[in-house]
Amino acid sequence: MTKNPKHYHVYVVLLNSDVLMKEKKFQEASPGCVPGWPCLYVGMTGLTPEKRFENHKRGYKGNKYVERYGERLAMEFLERGNPMNYSDAAQEEKRLALSLRELGYAVWQNL
User: Fold this and answer.
1) Given this model, what pLDDT does residue 15 score?
2) Which residues contact 60 (CB under 8 A, 6 or more apart)?
3) Of 21, 43, 48, 56, which shows the fewest CB atoms inside 10 Å?
4) How far apart are CA 103 and CA 71, in angstroms?
5) CA 30 to CA 21: how far, in whole Å?
6) 67: Cβ contacts below 8 Å, ≥ 6 apart
C-alpha cells in the first residue's frame, strides 16, 4: 500500500500578541504589521494540523513561538484547501505567509 502523495497540510496558528512585544526576532520579521491585528504562525506538515499543533505545544519538534504563545489553530486564514502534495504545500506555505504579511499581519514562517 502506497502513501497518498497529497497528505501535506498548510496550517495557521493564532499567537498571543505578547509574542510581538517580547520576541525581537518575531518583531523584525513583520516590520509593517498593523498594531492590534492578530499574530500568526504559518507552517506545513505531513500530519493533521491538529496533531502538529499538539506537538508544537508540548515542545516536540516545535517552533518556540507556537510552544510559548500558540493559542489555537486559525485555519480561517487559509486561502487554499488541504491536503496537497509536498511541493504544492511548501510553495503555499511561503506564499500564504508573504500574503498575510503584505496585508498587515505579524507572521512567522520558518524559511
Assistant:
1) 98
2) none
3) 21
4) 21
5) 12
6) 56, 57, 58, 59
